[in-house]
Request: fold
Amino acid sequence: MSELGQMLRETRESMGISLAEAEEATKIRKKYLQALEDGNYDVLPPAVYVRGFLRTYATYLGLDPEAALAMYRDGAQIHTTPKEPQIISEPLVPSSPINWELIAGVLMLVAVGVILVVVYRQYIAPLAAQPATPSPPTVTVEEPALAAAETPVLAVSDASIASPTPEPSPTPPPPTPEPPTPTVTQTRQPTATWTATPALTQALTLRLNVTARSWIRVVLDGQTAFEGTVTPGEERVWQARREIQMRTGNAGGLIATINGQELGALGSSGQVLDYVWRLSDTGQIMMATPTP
Reply:
């Protein structure tokens, strides 16, 4: 048992409080409270959540939250340099060295090119090769039998004599242009710098339990859904398909739950923080590190 865990347990037991009662009061799962007292940090969520749990629990027990956080950093050996986000759950689709999307895109472009060539050769090229022939006037010719020396008499319906029009020589069809070879450029997606939660889902649900008066602004999928002041005892729930952004003027007065996972208090009393939760294409809930 760590020094921090021993202090938490002795304080709780001296106050005659059980873990179940502490769970009900702080809205922190019993197994996380047990892990904090046992010093078993391996079962705890990422450090950003643990700091919120510890701050809320220490305040509940009447201890100094900052002193408790300092003891936690010493025990857990947490560095101040940012860590790479840890993927807690496996993606829905296993990674593969073969880029099937790129192959499918190339095959589709080739198929479209073949179809365009066939249509051009079958329909467009023959029409372009046919010359536009004007309609000749109607001519009635009477030829006397065996009268080679006589001039033939022509009767023209429109009272005009038409000279013989030479047959135009057929114009050879223009050469069929070869379709250009499609060029496919693969764009690399930037690596997300987010912390992932274990849950896989198709939507985001944020639940806030208000323990102290606080101003908040909530933006759902780019649209402001709420901006105002909430009071103790209120419970607010918002849902979004892709992203939830929240700014609070009193992070210590809000206990958050994202898709059923309790995060505890979002910060210390009077602290101004920005939170962003985003749903990835694989169904993971990614949370950016809170920024003041």
Remarks:
- The first helix runs from residue 3 to 14.
